[in-house]
Specification:
Layout lengths: L1 E6 L5 H4 L21 H6 L8 E6 L13 E5 L5 H13 L4 E4 L1 H5 L1 H4 L5 E5 L5 H9 L6 E5 L16 H4 L5 E3 L2 E2 L10 H5 L4 E2 L2 H10 L4 E4 L9 H16 L4 E7 L6 H9 L2 E8 L3 H8 L2 H15 L4 E8 L8 H12 L3 E6 L7 H8 L25 H16 L4 H4 L18
Parallel strand pairs: 1-2, 1-3, 3-4, 4-5, 5-6, 7-10, 10-11, 11-12, 12-13, 13-14
Antiparallel strand pairs: 8-9
Helix pairs in contact: 9-10, 10-11, 12-13, 13-14, 14-16
Length: 432
């Protein structure tokens, strides 16, 4: 049995906005070519020994539809959906069965179903073996899942599948400690896919995996681990304590400003080898106060940056724009905040109502969605009518913040927190 796993193409910032082409090519994480996300890497871990399989990254090279496969599996998130649909349609027209899974299919399976033979909802460990068995028997079912397996059933992703030096700018090892999130953030699809109950791997097992990957830059994919509730604080103390006891690692972490900011925890993150903390602004109380110009909340946000960076950890800010409370004065406030706080590494994104999230349903009820062109649901396009901007004005604010923030930055210094930022070859843009 021959199985092709496809990671579809999606639009990146420079493709969307040529006006940003004046910025140095290393600015902004979303401009970087990175390997396929964990979904494809997990699928590649589980095929039986008698299955011949291959992963194809359509961001690098066009799909060869003439090669014969017994099954095509396409794992994708919303900005990849239009490309995924085209790929699925083409393979099915040639008589090849197609299964689709990942974040977008799990959130909106009815939209996906016309482009495939089977939709996988939820997590692959609970469905992929049955999908392979049914495909071998020629008896694929229309739906599999939803699946939310116990952490003991999770598999480690394959990390030996890509020619990183040839194809990618940043090849951090992705490490997953937990799935699920208790917070009902209106634009986030994590609770809808993974559930509101947080399932965690044993800290010792995560630390052991990190130890085995020693020397590489590692991206811990879970921002929930930074939260302030008591259970997460205990878990994080144990996890980062174990990593620190092993001598530390080269860690890239994510969070919002709703995080465990006590000094002893920040000390522990530094001891564990944390190089950068990526913070998402825009929706929680500190961000809302900062965006509104509240002096107390602004001072609190400045203090967080100082305490993080005093420990040798780079504060990487990601500012969301276009929420209903946002007004045109926001741009100047954010630039002023970055200057006062000493933020030298930042990016900006547009609020995006991913399908079947609370924000999506709210905007649909209010008649404010502009379209369902999923390829533009990537954080770089205005896809709904904002309350206090026209769509064009919000786009110009977004582009202006990118330009104004980076115009006077020393790029080498700003991105020095990363182990490897280099100019990999740029293949011709694939058509898929």
């Amino acid at each position: 049995m021959r199985v092709l796993i496809v990671y579809p193409r999606f639009e990146r910032y420079l493709e969307a906005h040529p006006a940003l082409g004046e910025l140095p090519p290393v600015v902004g994480m979303w401009k970087y070519k990175m390997p396929p996300a964990l979904g494809a890497q997990i699928l590649a871990t589980m095929p039986p020994d008698d299955v011949e399989w291959r992963i194809h990254d359509a961001n690098l090279r066009s799909v060869d539809f003439d090669e014969r496969w017994d099954l095509v599996a396409i794992s994708f998130f919303t900005p990849q959906a239009s490309s995924a649909y085209r790929i699925g349609d083409e393979f099915r027209a040639r008589g090849v069965p197609v299964v689709m899974g990942g974040m977008h299919p799990s959130m909106i399976p009815d939209d996906v179903a016309p482009h495939c033979d089977a939709v996988c909802i939820g997590e692959a460990e609970g469905t992929w073996p049955a999908i392979l068995a049914d495909a071998r028997a020629g008896a694929l079912r229309p739906r599999y899942g939803p699946s939310r397996p116990d952490p003991r059933e999770w598999v480690r992703p394959r990390r030996d599948l890509f020619d990183a030096e040839r194809d990618y700018d940043w090849f951090a090892g992705l490490v997953q400690a937990m799935r699920g999130c208790p917070r009902p953030c209106p634009y986030c699809n994590i609770p809808g896919i993974y559930g509101r109950d947080v399932r965690v791997r044993a800290p010792a097992a995560v630390a052991a995996e990190i130890r085995e990957l020693g020397g590489r830059e590692l991206y811990l994919t879970d921002d929930v681990v930074m939260m302030t509730n008591r259970a997460m604080r205990r878990y994080a103390d144990e996890l980062f304590g174990a990593i620190a006891a092993d001598g530390g690692a080269n860690l890239f972490l994510t969070s919002s400003l709703i995080f465990n900011a006590r000094d002893d925890f920040l000390d522990l993150l530094a001891a564990a080898g944390t190089r950068s903390l990526y913070y998402t602004f825009g929706f929680e109380p500190i961000s809302r106060g900062l965006y509104a110009g509240d002096p107390a909340m602004t001072a609190r946000a400045i203090d967080i940056v100082k305490r993080v960076q005093d420990r040798g950890i780079r504060f990487y800010a990601a500012f969301g724009l276009g929420f209903d409370e946002d007004e045109p004065a926001l741009a100047d406030r954010l630039l002023d905040y970055c200057a006062r706080a000493g933020v030298i590494t930042a990016e900006f994104f547009l609020a995006t109502p991913f399908p079947n999230t609370p924000l999506y349903h709210q905007l649909a009820r209010e008649g404010r969605l502009l379209h369902r062109d999923w390829g533009r649901y990537n954080g770089a396009h205005v896809v709904f009518r904002p309350k206090h901007f026209t769509p064009d004005a919000l786009t110009e604010t977004f582009l202006g913040l990118w330009r104004d923030f980076w115009i006077d930055k020393d790029v080498e210094r700003s991105l020095s927190c990363f182990q490897s930022r280099r100019g990999a070859p740029s293949p011709a843009a694939p058509a898929d």
